[in-house]
Amino acid sequence: MNKLLIVESPAKAGTIQKYLGANYKVVASMGHVIDLPKSSLGVDVDNSFAPKYITIRGKGELLASLKKEAKKADEVLLATDPDREGEAISWHLARALDIDPSSKCRVTFNEITKTAVKDAIKHPRAIDMRLVDAQQARRVLDRIVGYQISPILWEKIKRGLSAGRVQSVATRLICDREEEILEFVPEEFHTIDVKLRDKKSRKQFSARYYGENGKERKLRSFEEAEAVTKDVTDAEFTVEGIKEGMKKRNPQPPFTTSTLQQDASRKLSFQASRTMSVAQTLYEGVRLGGRLGTIGLITYMRTDSLRIAVDALGEAKSFLTAQYGAENVRLRQYRSKKSAQDAHEAIRPTSIRIRPDDIKDKLTADQYKLYKLIWERFAASQMESAVYHVTSVDITANGHQFKATGSELKFKGYMNVYIESDDKKEEKSQTIPPLEESEKLAFVSIDSKQHFTQPPARFSDASLIHELEENGIGRPSTYAPTISTIVSRGYVQRSKKQLVPTELGILTTDLMKDNFKDIVDVAFTAHMEQELDDVEEGKTGWVAVLSDFYPDFEKTLSKAKRDIEKVEIKDVVSDVQCEKCGRMMVYKVGRFGKFLACPGYPECKNTKPIRVGTGVACPDCGGEILTKQTKKGKKYFSCEHWPKCEFTTWDTPIKSEKCPDCGGILLRHFGRGARIYCANKECKYEKKRKKKA
């Protein structure tokens, strides 16, 4: 029997084809093949918000090929991703290929392993129209908001701007935080730390000033701190009370999409989009060779559930017991949030037996780092709590009270595998020597410091994702594209790891707050997310959700068109002269970042990329090698005289070092096969570089 299995990506198709016999042909749809048109609203708001779907431009040949393959097959199975978006793609494909959506044509798997794929194919189901309706409601709602507000922004501020139901709220959060920072008034305070010595053990430890007469006191000035310092310097310090006990630190649950993006940002300095791109490759399959062959290394990476499959728990128990001993193992199921979509598991290794270091040479540097993070977090989640012995001591001196706290790790548990930042702080905590009440301590030294309260920190990728999730804004699949969009649109710019609003972002947000209050309101947006979840759960219809939303939105839209006054934003002038008309070019922001444009538009339409030099001479013609970006934002290097000079490379030119053999320029290659080598093709100089873990 000839069967056709349609997935979304070629990488996934290649992996799955290896698991199935000759009776199956696995092909890729390359994501959506049918969607709303880009050139118009594509929604009939007067006819129950009926979407006007079309074949996506450039996908006609692909769809024709899929139809041809479907006609040849005895059975067609749709195996797109196991979420709302994947369900909608399967629904569109079913309609295009004349497949009955209520027939058993849909298969899903949470992980791409031979066992999971074969089991899923044995249990096909009908397309879940509740998932389709939820995706359709989100798509139509986002289209209405984006396509009807954006033209107003073009007219009143500048062309090329866009509004979005989630991106506008995310931008507002960043702008509001910036306002908090600007309005913050620092307050002075002082701390006093004394170093004391236990006379019996002669061990030293520190205690911090707490207050007087059992009441906490904040020291607000030099004078107050100086008075306390004078009172206690060389005074008699007496132990007034000791509290001792054992404290447990529990492991963190396995990753969800949000927590994976946050940890990858904090620990690996990955932007959210980079994390998801690497996770996608780990999910779709990596060629490991040997008995493992090609296998998906992690479960589906778009999830907000903490559930773990029973068989994965069983494998974890046997593996961790063998590696770390039964005393360190404790199987756990974690409770997901009420809003979580529990169809998927948490993100975990498909097999805990595939250890990161065992396959390091089969992975790119990014794949290894992310897989190691996921593996360690999951392993730790199924281990015992760490146990600390904690001590708290109250100490008095001349009427002033000090407190000393310390902890000592007694049982590592999950910390054999995975250390959180809070764990590191605990590890650095001092150890208090054995003390007794009424014991006299020797004064060693005193240290008084002035401090000022700090404003709230700007958002990073990690903290913004956390804020969006905490407020119920967006879903696992939307966090990364939301951040990418607001940066590419020029509303926000990156400063190191921080997300900083631009003047354009602040102006646009102010306009949105004044005229589209609900669209940028956190509570309203969270409410709309809940409505979309209700559609998925069958509690309400998708048309009903839009019917409730649209009348008020339409009134707001009409008022905004009438009332908003034009805002003029002056472009920043560069020092680059337009070679066509002589004007000084200005900086503009487009889909792919900043570029230079002639201010004489539309008379002069000259544009050019911003030149970023490397200071390294081209080995072919002697011109300067420039840093450039592809349309997808990937960095590469090319001669300034391109295309006359064809020198181009993905590898980074090294400015500070020349080839020791021929004196040519050296290039640094990252990732798999990391090395430094000579750009001169006739020179064979090369040295291997150790990849950082």
SSE arrangement:
Layout: E1 3-7, H1 10-19, E2 24-28, E3 34-35, E4 43-44, E5 50-51, E6 54-55, H2 60-72, E7 75-78, H3 84-96, H4 114-122, H5 129-156, H6 167-183, E8 188-198, E9 204-212, E10 215-216, H7 222-232, E11 237-249, H8 257-268, H9 272-284, E12 286-289, E13 293-295, H10 310-324, H11 365-381, E14 386-397, E15 400-411, H12 421-427, E16 440-452, H13 461-470, H14 479-488, E17 492-495, E18 498-501, H15 503-515, H16 522-536, H17 542-563, E19 573-577, E20 584-590, E21 593-597, E22 607-609, E23 613-617, E24 624-629, E25 635-639, E26 648-649, E27 652-658, E28 665-669, E29 675-678, E30 686-688
Parallel strand pairs: 1-2, 1-7
Antiparallel strand pairs: 3-6, 4-5, 8-9, 8-16, 9-10, 9-15, 11-14, 11-16, 12-13, 14-15, 17-18, 19-20, 20-21, 21-22, 23-24, 24-25, 25-26, 27-28, 28-29, 29-30
Give a verbal description of the structure:
The structure is a single chain. By secondary structure, the protein is of the alpha+beta class. The protein contains 17 helices and 30 strands. The protein has a six-stranded antiparallel beta barrel. The chain is globular. The two termini are 47 Å apart.
Largest sheet: 6 strands, antiparallel, barrel
- The pLDDT mean sits at 91
- What structural category do the secondary elements indicate? alpha+beta
* Global shape: globular
Which band does the percent of strand residues land in?
A: 15-25%
Give the radius of gyration: 30 Å
How far is the N terminus from the C terminus? 47 Å
**Unreliably modeled segments:** none
SS summary, helix count: 17
- Strand line-up across the major sheet: 8-9-15-14-11-16
Quaternary state reads single chain
How many DSSP E strands?
A: 30
Helix content: 25-40%
